[in-house]
Structures are given as C-alpha cells and as structure tokens.
Write a structure and sequence with these properties.
It is a single chain. This protein has a five-stranded mixed β-sheet with strand order 5-4-3-6-7, with helices on both faces. The longest helix has 27 residues. Helix 10 packs antiparallel against helix 14 and helix 11 packs antiparallel against helix 12. It has a domain of 164 residues. The protein is of the alpha/beta class.
Length: 451
Amino acid sequence: MGVFGDPGPAPATAREAVTAMTEAGVFDDLFAQIDSGGLQLTGQGGFVPEMIKAVLERGLAVELGDHLGYDKHDPAGRGSGNSRNGSTGKTVLTEAGPVELATPRDRNGSFEPRLVPKGARRIDGGLDEMIISLYAGGMTIRDIEHHLARTIGVEVSRETISNITDATLEEVKAWQARPLEEIYPVIYLDALVVKVREGHQVRNKAAHIAVGVDLDGVKHVLGIWVENTEGAKFWAGVCAELRNRGVRDVLIVCCDGLTGLPEAIEATWPKATVQTCVVHLIRAAMRFVSYGDRKAVAAALRPIYTAPTAESALTELVTFGDSNWGKKYPATFKTWENAWDRFIPFLEFAPEVRRVIYTTNSIESLNYQLRKIIKNRGHFPSDDAVVKLLWLAIRDIEDKRAREREKERVKPKAARKSVPKLVEGAAVTSWKAALGALALSYPERVGHLIK
C-alpha cells in the first residue's frame, strides 16, 4: 500500500513521503490556516510542537503495549499481572521548542520507555550536535544560549548547555590516553597562550599541541597539554605520558626553544634529536630589521641555513656578522649566535629530511585556526575546559573540511578546489624520499620497521 492507503510502493525516504503528501493536497488546508493567521506553525502551541507531541505520545503508547503484551482495552490483559496506570506529565526540550508529554505508566513500574527514556529532558534530533559545534566554533555558553533563542526559538538553560559540552570530557580523556605508534620519525611541538582562571586570578598559560608523523608519513595530533609548572618538570611528565602510551622511539623533535624539553627528551628517548624550528629562528632574527630592509637581510641569511655542513654554515654566519647588514643589525646576528647549538642538528640531515623539519607550518596553521576560535572567549574556567575546547575545535575543523571535500568531489575536475586535511590524517609531502634518507641515517632504528 502507498501513502494514505493508496496502492503503490511506500516512499523510501522522509522527503519522498512529504512530497507525496504535498502533491496529494494534504497540506493545503494547513497552509491556508497558517496564511490566514489562524494557526501558528512554531512556538508554544504551534503546529510543529503539537505534531511532535502527538508522534511521541503515540510511540510511547505503542512501547507500553509491547511491554505489557496487549493493546489498550484488549480483554487479553485481564489477569495478566500488570496493566496501564495513567500517565505522568513531563516537559522535554526539542529543536521546535519545549513539548509537554503525557508519559504512560504501568502498575508494576517496570516500563522503561526507549523513545523518551526516564529522566530525559531533551529529544536530541541534532540539538546536542548543534550546541557542541557552536561551542567548538568559539561561542561561550552564554553566547550559545542567546543564539539558540534568537535563531530557532529554543530556550536552553546554561546548565543544560554546560552539561552537553561536559559530556564530551570522557571522550576527550579517552582520546588523550589512546595507544600510540611505537615510533614517530618526527614530532612537532607548538603552543598557544590561553587565559585560565585559578582562584581569584586569571593566568596566562601555554597549551602545547604535539603532532606526530608516523612511518607512513601521516600526521596525527598526539595530545594537548596545559602547562601547570615551569620547564623540566612539566615536560618530563609529557614525555613520560607519551612513552606510557606506547611511543618507544622518536627520531626528531621540532620545537621552538622550550625550556626543559631537551632534558626531558634525552631522559625519555636518549637518541632523539631536538631541533629548533628554522622558520621561527628566522622570524625571531628579523624582528629587529626594518620593513624596507627585510627582503635584503633575508637573502643575506639564506646561505646560513642552506649550507651543506655545520662548518660552512658557521662561515656564512661570520660573513653575515661582518657584512654591512650584520653591523647594522647586530641583534639579528646575536639571535643566530645564541640559537646555534639548537640550530646545527638541522644541517646533519639530507635535503629531503630538511624540507620536513624546516618548519612547523602544519601545526602553526592549526594553531592559527584555533587562535581565531579562542580569541573572543576571555578566559577559561579550568585546564580541562581548555583541552575540551581545543579538541572539539580540531574535530570540528576537520569535519568541515571533510564536508567541503565531499562538495568538491561532485564538481567537474576542472572546477574543483583543493581542500586538504589541515593536520589530522594529512600526508607529508615527498615523505617517501624523506623516509629513505632517515633509513640511511638511522638503519638500526628505522630500517627494520619499513615494510
């Protein structure tokens, strides 16, 4: 049977069902009443909330009938040991607004509805996902409350919104504790400055994000840590956590002069190389250069970090220091000189590897997106709130890019735009060549693991 008892195949989707009803003129009288102002579509007492109420109450009645084993007024229920026992009123929140339900009861109190479970105050239908997406986009709980009321007319308390976002904390903790690969050839570390309330004060803290490159050249966000203590103690804890999650070896750690990190890495992975980010070093050196001279000074610095060996790089640094640019900007020369010990490991690697560790751009691009999200938040109530938002934001960013890729996929090839993964799951360019060079440099640590 088709729609409303007419012969024919039943609609395969809700859209097909609505289309069939529209073509059959089912909604004509309804829309006429709405147009005349005699019927409200949404809001309290509106058609949509009342329709949701009718559907839910009918579903609950069917569930109770299945539980009891007989329909209402069916003589088969006599002497069954259990029967219907009226209903209990409750108000549930839906995307169309609050709906008052009459939830049926049984005399024995054994009925457990699944459609609207006991204690449930929300019928999700995507509302939870909407709230989490808004939160991940940088909105505060107060912002979300006003946004939902203004856009879809749904009143959601701040406590409810907070509970919805807090429900992800267990998922965040499971992600932060998940097992990792045995070896990561490269790990990038970078930080965001966030404001966190501690007691009656708001402190600036560093939220560190680690991105690891596995043997297949795929990037993964390994974890997020908010720095509670200064230097070595903090990084010793981070490294110990990564090791406890299965990381037995790391070849290269790219970072930006983090105090205490080299010592913690040496204690955890004694053979790992700590490498300063060359792009960060260049930027730090260029801070002292006037805008008009930057292009020329950058060209004068290039022979240092493109030198084939540490000895030739040192020669180029001395040459720069003795040049007119070096004399005009001695602080630029001093920046390179102070960072020399952290820079020269870079020169030991083949060009294919240098291209991979030259910059932490991939994680910087992620942090740029995250900074846009957190800039309007003022401060966070706790460290957990920082980790929760950053994790949700990363997930939301990658989900949006995935949806964009799906949209582009249906377009003709000539009209498609490239929407790569930002970090999680993204592939390192020319990784095969870099992995080959690493295998030659570390045959006993990498060679036997390459398939």
